[in-house]
C-alpha cells in the first residue's frame, strides 16, 4: 500500500463492518440451540418447527431487496445503522414472546437486519478496500459470520448447561436469543467511527469527501487516479435497475445468482440450523449433539482463515473449484453414513470435512465475487438481487429440511445426497462460467463486461 495511505484505517473500518457479519452469524446459529426447547415450550409440530427455523429468513428476503435501493439512495453507512438497530430490537423481543406469533414477528425483524446487512456489508468492504487487499478484507465479513456462529454455538452450550431440561424449556432458549442485543449495541456505537463509502460519495457528487477518504486509504496520488476512474465509470453508466438485465451485465447477474443459490442448496444452513437435530437423528444424546455442534462452529471459524490467507494469492476460482469438489465427496459420505446407520466420529468427520470445504471457499468467496463483479452505480441494487437469491434459497432449505429428514420415504440419507449433487453442479458452474477477479480494480472488472 502507498506509504501515505493507511492500512490500519481500512482494516479498522472493515473490522467494524464485519460486526454486521458477526450478528448475521449469531442470528443464523442461535436457533440451532434454541429450537428444540422452543418446540417443547410452544408445542410446535414439524411444520411449525420448520417455520420457526426459517422465520428470520422470511424477513431476509424483503430486507435484502429493499436494502440495495435504500443504500444507493441514502448511503451505505446509514443502512448499517439501521441493520444494527434491527438486530438489537429483535434480540430483546425474541427473548420475551408469549405466543408463537409473537416469536415469528420478532424473528422477522432480525431477518430484515440479516437480509440488509448481508447485502450492504460486502458492498461497503469492497468499495473501501484497495484491489491488492480486497479479497482478504472481504473475507473478514465471512470471518465475522463464522465467528458469530461459533461463539453462538458455544454460548448456547454454556446456557444449556446452566439448568435442567425444564429450565431450558422455560427460560434457557430466551437467554440464547436475547444475548444478541449486546453485540448489536456495540455495533451501533462503533459505526459512529467509520466513514461513508468513497465510491458512493463520488457518485453523489461529494468529490471532496470521497477524495479525503481515498487519500487515507491509498495516499493522495493514488486517490486522484482512483477518483478519476470512478468518475469515468459513472459517466458511462445510467445507473438504472433495468440495466442489470441488459446484455452487458446479464452474465455477472447470472453468476452472482447462481453462486448464491448453489451456496444454499448444498445444505450448509441445514447443518447450521439443525446440526443438533442431525446428530440426535444419528443416535447422539442431546449433550453430545450440542458438543458436536460446537466443533462444527470451531472448524467453520478455523478454515475461514484459510480463505483469508489464500483468496488474494491462489485466487477466487481455484478456491471455489477445490472447495466444491471436497463438498461433493463429503456430503455423499454423510448420506452413506445415514444409509448404513453409521454414527459417532465417522459421521462427525464427514460433516466437518464439508464445513471446512465450505468455509474456505463457497462461504466467503461467493460474497466477495458478488460484491466485485457489478458496476459501481448499480452495485447496491445488483447485490439486492443476489441476496434475494440466497435468502429465498435459504428459506427453502430451512423450511424443508425437518420435513425431509423426518420423512420415512426420504430421510437424512437421500437429503444429503441431494445436497451432494448440488455441490457437484456448483463445481461445473464455477468451472464453466466464473471469471477470476483477484488483483483487478472494481472499475477494471466493470470494463471487462463491456468488452464481452
Strand content: under 5%
Question: Low-confidence runs (pLDDT<50, min 5 residues)?
Answer: none
Q: Give the beta-strand count.
A: 0
Q: Tell me the series of helices and strands, N- to C-terminal.
A: HHHHHHHHHHHHHHHHHHH
What is the secondary structure topology, with strand pairs?
Elements: H1 7-42, H2 46-74, H3 76-94, H4 100-128, H5 134-160, H6 165-178, H7 181-191, H8 198-203, H9 207-218, H10 220-236, H11 250-265, H12 268-281, H13 286-310, H14 316-339, H15 345-360, H16 362-372, H17 379-406, H18 411-433, H19 442-451
Task: Provide an overview of this structure.
The chain folds into 2 domains: 7-194 and 237-451, Growth Hormone, Chain: A (Up-down Bundle), CATH 1.20.1250.20; 200-236, no CATH class. The longest helix has 36 residues, at 7-42. 81% of the residues lie in helices and 0% in strands. The mean pLDDT is 85. With 452 residues, it is an all-alpha fold. Helix 15 (345-360) packs parallel to helix 16 (362-372). 57% of the residues are buried.
What's this, in brief?
By secondary structure, the protein is an all-alpha fold. Helix content is 81%, strand content 0%.
List the main descriptive attributes of the protein structure presented here.
mainly alpha; 452 residues; 19 helices; globular; Growth Hormone, Chain: A; 0% strand; 2 domains
Amino acid at each position: 500500500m502507498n506509504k501515505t495511505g493507511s492500512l490500519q484505517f481500512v482494516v479498522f473500518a472493515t473490522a467494524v463492518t464485519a460486526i454486521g457479519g458477526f450478528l448475521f452469524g449469531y442470528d443464523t446459529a442461535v436457533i440451532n440451540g434454541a429450537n428444540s426447547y422452543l418446540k417443547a415450550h410452544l408445542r410446535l409440530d414439524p411444520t411449525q418447527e420448520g417455520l420457526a427455523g426459517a422465520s428470520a429468513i422470511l424477513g431476509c428476503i424483503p430486507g435484502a431487496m429493499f436494502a440495495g435501493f435504500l443504500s444507493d439512495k441514502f448511503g451505505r453507512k446509514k443502512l448499517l445503522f439501521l441493520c444494527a438497530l434491527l438486530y438489537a430490537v429483535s434480540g430483546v423481543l425474541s427473548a420475551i414472546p408469549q405466543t408463537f406469533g409473537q416469536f415469528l414477528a420478532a424473528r422477522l425483524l432480525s431477518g430484515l437486519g440479516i437480509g440488509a446487512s448481508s447485502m450492504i456489508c460486502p458492498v461497503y468492504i469492497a468499495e473501501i478496500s484497495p484491489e491488492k487487499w480486497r479479497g482478504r478484507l472481504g473475507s473478514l465479513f465471512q470471518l465475522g459470520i463464522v465467528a458469530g456462529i461459533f461463539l453462538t454455538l458455544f454460548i448456547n452450550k454454556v446456557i444449556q448447561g446452566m439448568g435442567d431440561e425444564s429450565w431450558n424449556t422455560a427460560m434457557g432458549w430466551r437467554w440464547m436469543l436475547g444475548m444478541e442485543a449486546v453485540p448489536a449495541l456495540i455495533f451501533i456505537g462503533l459505526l459512529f467511527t467509520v466513514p461513508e463509502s468513497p465510491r458512493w460519495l463520488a457518485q453523489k457528487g461529494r468529490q471532496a469527501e470521497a477524495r479525503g477518504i481515498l487519500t487515507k486509504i491509498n495516499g493522495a496520488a493514488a486517490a486522484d487516479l482512483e477518483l478519476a476512474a470512478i468518475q469515468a465509470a459513472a459517466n458511462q453508466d445510467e445507473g438504472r435497475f433495468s440495466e442489470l438485465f441488459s446484455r452487458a451485465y446479464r452474465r455477472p447477474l447470472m453468476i452472482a445468482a447462481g453462486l448464491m443459490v448453489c451456496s444454499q442448496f448444498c445444505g450448509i444452513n441445514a447443518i447450521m440450523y439443525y446440526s443438533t437435530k442431525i446428530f440426535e437423528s444419528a443416535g447422539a444424546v442431546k449433550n453430545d449433539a450440542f458438543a458436536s455442534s460446537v466443533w462444527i462452529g470451531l472448524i467453520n471459524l478455523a478454515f475461514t482463515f484459510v480463505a483469508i490467507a489464500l483468496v488474494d494469492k491462489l485466487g477466487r476460482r481455484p478456491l471455489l473449484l477445490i472447495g466444491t469438489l471436497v463438498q461433493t465427496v463429503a456430503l455423499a459420505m454423510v448420506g452413506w453414513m445415514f444409509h448404513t446407520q453409521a454414527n459417532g466420529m465417522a459421521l462427525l468427520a464427514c460433516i466437518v470435512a464439508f464445513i471446512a470445504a465450505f468455509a474456505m471457499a463457497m462461504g466467503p468467496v461467493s460474497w466477495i465475487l458478488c460484491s466485485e463483479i457489478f458496476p459501481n452505480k448499480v452495485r447496491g441494487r445488483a447485490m439486492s438481487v443476489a441476496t434475494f437469491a440466497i435468502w429465498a434459497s435459504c428459506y427453502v432449505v430451512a423450511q424443508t429440511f425437518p420435513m425431509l429428514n423426518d420423512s420415512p420415504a426420504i430421510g437424512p440419507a437421500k437429503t444429503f445426497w441431494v445436497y451432494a449433487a448440488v455441490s457437484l453442479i456448483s463445481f461445473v458452474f464455477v468451472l464453466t462460467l466464473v471469471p477470476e477477479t483477484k488483483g483487478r480494480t472494481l472499475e477494471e472488472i466493470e470494463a471487462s463486461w463491456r468488452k464481452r
